[in-house]
Amino acid sequence: MAAIPAWLTLLIAPFIVLNVVIGLVTYVTLLERKFAARMQSRIGPYRVGPHGLLQPIADALKLMMKEDVVPTAADRRIYNLAPIVFLIPCMLIFATIPFAPGLGVADVNIGILFFLAVSAMEIVGLFMAGWGSNNKYALLSAMRAVNQIISYDLPFIFSALVPVLLAGSLKMSDIAAVQQGSLLKWFIFYPVIGQLAFIMFIVSTLAAENRVPFDILEAESELVAGFRVEYSGMKFALIQLGEYAHMIGSSFLGALLFLGAWSGPGPEYLGPIWFLLKAMFIFLVVTWIRWSFVRIRVDQILALSWKALLPATLGLLITTAVVVVWRTSGF
Amino acid sequence: MASDARPRTVAPPAHYEATEITTIVRAVLRAMGATLKNLFRKPVTVHYPDKERQYPSRYRGLLALTYDKETGEENCIGCRLCEYVCPPAVIKVEMLKSEKRNYAKTFTLELYACEFCELCVQVCPTDAIVMMKSFDMPTADRREMLLDKDRLHVIGLEYEQSWATGNRLRDMQTPPKAPAPAHAKPAAAPAATPEATGV
Amino acid sequence: MLDVNNTTRVEMDWSGPERLQMNMGPQHPSAHGVFRAILGLQGETVVDVDAVIGYLHRCHEKLSETLTYAQYPSIASKTDYVAAMTSEFAYVLAAEEIGKFEVPKRAQYLRVIVAELQRIASHLLWLGTWCMDMGGALGGGATIFLYCIREREDILDLFESLVGARLLYGFFQVGGVRYDIPDGWAEQCRSTIDRINSRIDEYEQMLEDNAFFLARTKGVGVVSRELAQDVGISGPLLRGSGINWDLRRAVPYSSYQDFDFRVPVETDGDCYARYRVRMAEFRQAISITRQALDKLPEGPISSRPALKSVAQIRIPKGEAYARVEGPRGEVGTYMISDGSAKPYRMKWRGASFSNLAILPHIIPGHKVADVVAIMGSVDPVFGEVDR
């Protein structure tokens, strides 16, 4: 290890993480499709490879080989740039996640802050896609996206700050380290506050990831496919990749904040596996919710955020602060 | 739409208010429970081309012409009843007059426009046209669905025949005039075969 | 919790310049066929709707003048292809009324059985597609859609073993029905409707008091009692607006008076009321099917001689209007006979066509997302609208 110069690790680590994430995204789509299919009394992908195991590769190949269509009326520069602008923040969120003690790209001391700030950036890409397509459906969807993501980032941040308060650090590895040792140290098992914060985290994650019941910006029954209605081929694949990467990133964040990250039985090198399993668990819960509900309307979504979720998360945050102060100083 | 450019009084939708948080939570859990229950049910998907489908005996599938079981002659006498009854008019028959009995000189069926209504089977006096327990006739070329007499005979030998034939259908529908059901069949058949001598 | 409590009537000025014209359809995921709604939007609010129909016109009325009474029932199923049995039913009833043909009791009961099974199948498709409109093909809507399709498949299997076809049946003929039930069909039918009965509980478990579902349906697309009568809607829409009108009860045809059933009525007139009416109709249809299977008398299935040629059925001069209560409402045929083997003129009254007329009255003022919910709750079938 010592032979590798520092600048090289700075290049290698992101390269590895990026490739692992892309591989994960392709297979997570298969996981979701299989899971959803079983929920709906179907089998799901089955034909490509044994039990459809090669399906994601077939999908990716198909998207790569598709013709790249640009609508005549589209604003070409914005239209072409949008998928990349959307994808970059979705990939960047993995930068500060430590997958095991010391195994991460950059374990900075404002890790959580970085994650939250960067994941909110994807809205720029979304809006560019909606605007640049010059399509009424896409424009409506972009408007909805701005509304929704701004409304839901606050509850998302507040609910994510609860474990930060409990751990007393913004550094992700510190938050994970606090939860090591026993199951009861996981923040989800923190009395009352932990469970409430977890539920609110899941709800605002659903909204921030645009999943049913909050997928009004995709809303294919009214807006056809929303902001990506004019995209096809590789650009569509980039948007899809970004969405799933964001989803997986949020699942990792949830597992890190509430489920004790890499804590688990067995030797230490199993840590990343445990972390992955926990993230996949959160991902499956989100999927399960997704395939069980109808979506709600744009005004109801905003009302739910501003009138219920935001006060609730804010109240919870203040309560947590009071509890933490009370427990540390004991007044 | 210009007529709508005036103020109109509308009632904004009266909104539903979910007041109790517990009812929401319970409803959410119930809905998720329903999907969870289905998660452990057996999928209903049938692997179609790998697994043969079980057709019911009355299946209305591909049309075909039959041969007589004993003599091996064609059953069709070219009487054109099916041509007349066909609602989308996909059947074209020409009769070939012969000494003992008549034949169909040509028999074409445009399967791509067929309704599969079984009226041709219903009226056929000699049970010549029947339906098969199959619909497996995928093709990239419409012209392959234009079936001639030979092709229809081949289909008749290739697939399994459905239950329905003209006589059986008519027997099922005929209101019994006399208590004996046995002579419903001879009553139906000769009436529908004008001057056909039969085999 | 989910929304503002704003129920006062407001004056809206829709003449402003900030309007967006948006075409919903004819090719749109929730157009339910080929329906084009030109929406005028102000932000997310629909202020104006122009409905364009006619993309699926197939000249059914003219076609019926060229086909004989023996041929047309098989074609009649194509008007409303989701409830094919009902369309055939209306046609043969009109012909029988002009010709004063007796229909044997067994045939009448068989007609009731297939009509009610068809109602279940049609409502299942409605529920699935409606939830898909609201829940998205990539969400919970698709789940319910697939459950509904799974159950509808069972009914189509029943029809398949009865007549041999799954979508367009040709089961009816003037004077009776074309097929008698095969051996074991009654038991198969009983077990199927029992299973569907229990599955309907499951759908209700998913929807009935689901906060998201209620938020999307309650108070959305309210049709008042007066509006319902003025526009002339029928079927579950009418009963959802508090009017107790069911042709099976009001003017019983085909021995419906023999069965004991309830006509579900809801008074709210919103999407949720229509949902409740249809869910109750599932249960009533299942109950009627059971009763009809229990009481099914022996005897002939047709009072007319079996069909042997195309022009066999001739009907004396006269005219008649026959109507049946289809899954979507009143399906009627007005038939004029000139004594030949074909009707001189025939008019279809499609339930969906009349029901669609309600859309411009109830859509303005709602959000875009509500448009699909309202459209779905009206349950149009465009084969029947355009004919």
Description:
The complex is a heterotrimer of chains A (331), B (199) and C (387). With 331 residues, chain A is an all-alpha fold. In chain A, 66% of the residues lie in helices and 0% in strands. The longest helix of chain A has 34 residues, at 6-39. Chain A is globular, with a radius of gyration of 20 Å. The relative contact order of chain A is 0.14. Chain B is an alpha+beta fold. Chain B is built from six helices and six strands, in the order E-H-E-H-E-E-H-E-E-H-H-H. Chain B has helices at residues 21-39, 81-85, 119-123, 149-158, 166-173, 184-192; strands at residues 8-10, 63-65, 91-96, 103-110, 129-131, 146-147. In chain B, the strands form two sheets. Chain B has a three-stranded antiparallel β-sheet. In chain B, helix 5 crosses helix 6 (184-192). With 387 residues, chain C is of the alpha+beta class. Chain C is 47% helix and 13% strand. Chain C has helices at residues 60-66, 72-76, 84-99, 105-135, 140-163, 185-207, 211-217, 225-231, 236-240, 247-250, 271-295, 351-356, 359-362, 368-378, 382-386, and strands spanning 10-12, 20-24, 36-42, 45-52, 172-173, 176-177, 318-326, 329-337, 343-349. In chain C, the strands form three sheets. In chain C, strands 2-3-4 form a three-stranded antiparallel β-sheet, with no helix packed on it. A three-stranded antiparallel β-sheet of chain C has the order 7-8-9. In chain C, a hairpin with a 5-residue loop joins strand 8 (329-337) and strand 9. Chain C is globular. The relative contact order of chain C is 0.20. Residues 1-12 of chain C have low confidence and may be disordered. Chains in contact: A-B, A-C, B-C. Strand 1 (8-10) of chain B pairs antiparallel with strand 1 (10-12) of chain C.
